[in-house]
Design a protein that fits this description.
Largest sheet: 9 strands, mixed
Structural class: alpha/beta
Order of helices and strands: EHEHEHEHEHEHEHHEEEEEEEEEHHE
Helix content: 25-40%
Strand content: 15-25%
Strand order of the largest sheet: 16-15-14-13-7-12-11-8-17
Number of strands: 17
Number of helices: 10
Low-confidence stretches: none
Bound molecules: nicotinamide-adenine-dinucleotide
Radius of gyration: 21 Å
Mean pLDDT: 95
Distance between the termini: 39 Å
Shape: globular
């Protein structure tokens, strides 16, 4: 029997739209899921934006006040897709109101914020999902299995990169992302958080690190109207308060080593996200821009060992829910459908599937350690309780 699940979306920028479309597509890709989302309401503070979203995507109602969502008995699950500084307040309030939470990374500004939301969810007994979408790529899941199975030997080191140009334009608007109070630690929460989640997924816990950060575009123009996503602006200049760039050396609990680098102002780089994992007998690498491919080297040759390109197919992760055969391309939005599926399955079965608030807390603890290390130039232990 199929039960309906009233859902709401809070914050209707890019992620609000993508979460909404994921809910709408769930039944197409997962017809056997015993829960069917119903778009109940959307909350958005920009005047008219919630009404426009409701008319276009089919929410039954719209509001400018997210508190109405918390009080709405029709709503059983909430997507929190507002800016980072609101994650804690909205996340805690929704959990306390008994709503299951699908919340965007990085979940607040610090590990303390993420912990507050995680604790509220656990006290309320609600399920959670967090927007670490790259781990949902079938190729990433297969890479993880390959690493875990020992196919590439003992893992020795990993390189993780997240380079983007979304903030490279000098006239890019000074939105919430560039303010410490509303955006937190810049590229750390924005991109490095995804890299940390991938690192943990592939190699396990990070024990300690040392990091260096920089701001390369120190001033930006203030927007003169409402913003969503990355827009240009011509207003007066204001200071960029948080990091454009981070590089980080990682030591994993397993003894493996890693390098993580993330930048939001890399001219010539568009979504250049990926990793290379090396082991004593092989290697596996992935590039988001060729999401369905893995480069795999395994065997017993060690030197001059061939590298093969493997196209993932219906046997890999959730690929079969989207495409009938290998090398048919999946896209970014599909990863959010997988995330929505795992969220609803967690609710239906009362067991966690996919990234949860505990993963967000651990990722945020690593980001906090990066901030501390960059400030004093030392190696920092990652808080074990993270
Ligand atoms: N998982 C991913 O790949 C990914 C990608 C982009 C952004 N994100 C995360 O998603 C979140 C949103 O990012 P975005 O790119 O969609 O930003 P955005 O600026 O496009 O959208 C945020 C929306 O929230 C609205 N908002 C602000 N205050 C509000 C309030 N009090 N009540 C209701 N709505 C409010 C804004 O008006 C805006 O429409 C961030 O936490 C970001 O880190 C995740």
């Amino acid at each position: 029997m199929v039960d309906t699940l009233g859902v709401a979306v809070v914050g209707f920028g890019w992620m609000g739209r993508v979460h909404t479309q994921a809910y709408a597509r769930l039944a197409h890709h997962y017809p056997d899921l015993p829960l069917r989302p119903e778009l109940v309401t959307v909350a958005e503070e920009v005047p008219g934006r919630a009404e426009e979203a409701a008319a276009r995507f089919g929410f039954a109602s719209a509001t400018r006040d997210w508190r109405e969502v918390a009080a709405d008995p029709r709503v059983r699950a909430v997507s929190v897709t507002a800016p980072n500084f609101l994650h804690r307040e909205i996340g805690v309030a929704m959990a306390e109101a008994g709503k299951h939470l699908w919340i965007e990374k990085p979940v607040g500004l610090t590990a303390d914020d993420a912990r507050a939301v995680a604790d509220a969810a656990s006290r309320a007994g609600v399920r959670s999902a967090v927007g670490f979408n790259y781990r949902n790529a079938p190729a990433v899941e297969t890479a993880r299995d390959l690493v875990a199975s020992g196919d590439i030997g003992t893992v020795t080191h990993v390189r993780i990169r997240l380079f983007s140009d979304y903030a490279a334009h000098p006239q890019g608007a000074l939105t919430w992302r560039y303010e410490r109070e509303r955006g937190g630690s810049g590229v750390l929460g924005d991109l490095a958080s995804h890299g940390v989640d991938l690192a943990r997924r592939l190699l396990g816990d990070i024990a300690s690190l040392t990091a260096d950060t920089a701001i390369f575009v120190p001033e930006r123009a203030r927007p003169t109207g409402a913003t969503a996503g990355h827009t240009l602006a011509t207003g007066e200049l204001g200071p960029v308060e948080n990091e454009d760039y981070v590089s980080c050396l990682l030591r994993f609990a397993s003894g493996a080593r890693g390098v993580l680098e993330a930048c939001r102002v890399s001219v010539g780089e568009q979504n250049n996200y990926g990793f290379e994992v090396h082991g004593t007998r092989g290697a596996v690498s992935w590039d988001f821009r060729r999401m369905g491919e893995l480069r795999v080297s395994r065997g017993t040759t060690y030197q001059d060992q061939p590298v093969a390109t493997v196209h993932v197919g219906p046997g890999d992760g959730e690929f079969g829910a989207f495409q009938p055969g290998a090398a048919n391309a999946m896209g970014y939005d599909d990863l959010k459908v997988v995330e929505a599926y795992r969220f609803l399955r967690s609710i239906a079965e009362g067991t966690a599937y996919g990234a949860t608030l505990e993963d967000a807390v651990r990722s945020a603890a690593v980001l906090d350690a990066m901030v501390r290390s960059a400030a004093d130039g030392t190696w920092v232990d990652v808080a074990a309780e993270g």
